[in-house]
Amino acid sequence: MKQSFRITGIDCANCAAKLERKLQKIDGVTSLSLNFFTSKLILEAEEDRFDAVLAEVARVTHKEQPDAELGKA
Amino acid sequence: MKKKLTPLIVSILLFIPGLILHGRTVWLSPVLCTVSYLLIGGKVLLKAAKNIRRGHIFDENFLMCVATLGAFAIREFPEAAAVMLFYQIGERFEHYAVDKSRRSIAELMDIRPDWARLYRDGVEQEVDPEQIEIGDLIRVQPGEKIPLDGVVTAGTAALDTKALTGEPMPRQVQVGDDVISGCINLDGVLTIRVTKPFGESTVSKILDLVENAAGQKAKHETFISRFAAVYTPVVVGAAVLLAVLPPLLIPGQAFSDWIGRALNFLVVSCPCALVISVPLTFFGGIGGASKKGILVKGGNFLEALAKTDSVMMDKTGTLTKGEFAVQEVCPVGMTKEELLHFTASAECFSSHPIAKALLSAALLPVDPSTVTDITETAGFGITATVSGKQVLIGNEKHLQKAGLVVPSAEGIGTIVYVAVGGRFAGHIRIADVIKPEAIDAISRLKKMRVRRTVMLTGDALPTARAVADTVGIDTVYAELLPTDKLEHLEGIFKTTPPGGRVVFVGDGINDAPVLARADVGIAMGGLGADAAIEAADIVIMTDEVSRVATVIGIARKTMRIVRQNIVFAIGIKVAVLILSACGLVGMWAAVFADVGVSVLAILNALRMLK
To answer: How near does any CA of chain A get to the CA of B547, in Å?
Structure first.
């Protein structure tokens, strides 16, 4: 399952790149891309685990970038 | 994103006397510099403190604080304040540049309709386009965007398709015409019966494609993110070694001197310039192409396209219009007008492409009431009576069967022989029309040093050869079945030098396997052709074949800027690192190598969005 989200409040492109690398390592993520310029996060994960993976993505995002907000695309 | 200017200005005003008085006063200069520093850098200090608690030691704010506080420690007060000032000014520029690129990107995406005017049970209401179902009627006023794909049921209008096709000429539509979402209605009021839900409408598809293009990363982008992941720790590690080792190992070396040099390393350790500018350039390339009506599905395809060695093209629909037209009229015993008139009249009830070509070539008006007794013989032709005269139209055999002697004619395309009133009246040659811009398209490719141009077609060799010669294509493979095309593609691969890429251009109809197998598959006439959008790597929204050269040009420009930025950013950083290690440059140079380089690289990348 693939879904896109809007992510705002990231300081800089390098921070976004670092966050992307961390998020890609989360267990259950098939593919993930974070575009700093379009403020878009595209997450692909297995259907039955999607919500759990998404929760983990949100948790790590908040830990790395407290000002970041993850919302509906 | 807007930050207040006042602290910056006050900070600069305090800094200038601080700098002038440096070394001349005991306390005034340090105080001025410190206040200036805190005013501009207070937030950076706070952020750094927060980040340390979260364990981010390679954070940019933190590194900047260590560097400047280090400068305080070695009593370089103006330097500390200057570095912070410089850093903040650079950051502002960076934010501005990022903002500007975001806005340009948002402009490119500005084809999404926000609402649709639904017309149901005699009532009009504005609703979310997503709520509209197939079969619903919507109304579009002048100046509004068409929200969903559909068919016009009432009204006529000129449509501006520029946002989709890059085509400045408006398109006229009337009742019965298909219209595509994203076009802007320039005049008239249109009522449209929706044929596709919003999610499958052209606008959604295009936006989805462009926004997700970033998902398919180019090799250069992957290289940059790998480089960034190791660059910072390596430089910070080197800084530590530089601060500690020389003073310990070399007698007579002061710690303060080497710490100063090491602090420079920390300032240069952010790979921001690369991390921002390389993806931005690819994005700019993709965005710039979409402005010209060319959809690129990923940075990797621009990368491949820049290395184009061979371009293979389908004939029908790509180099030719895929429409028949009368090319030559050779009458015997009557005028051209008369011959065309008899022929067109006899064919006026037929919907065959050849009949259409004849009808549109007729110079005199055709009156269907003068045509009677039409009989069609499959494989031969048509017999009809026009204004009392028997007319035979068809191949040589059709006329020979009627006992006529037919002089054989030669030429490209289909030849139609005509007899009127029992006498041979001449022949008309009909052929597919070469797109007028095809010649220019091929010559542009050659000027761009594309080594080989190849045409593939299912058509007969003489016809194919004639088209190829006209437009200037080198190699022709004719009389091919769809599977043969794939075989020829493999052959082309084998004779392509390593590093060169093979591009295939087709109309997306029945050449999907070739589109998929080529390094880059380009589909023409994507507007309304969903299959083409799915199958290809790059979609040209109009049917202009010259845009193949345009997109190769965009790809090359993108790669040029990417390479410039990589070489420039890494070059400056390495140079500043070496000079810093030798103690030849101050922290100013280091700040330039950090934010200055970022700003310049972003500005360079922004050229792509123009």
So the answer is: 26
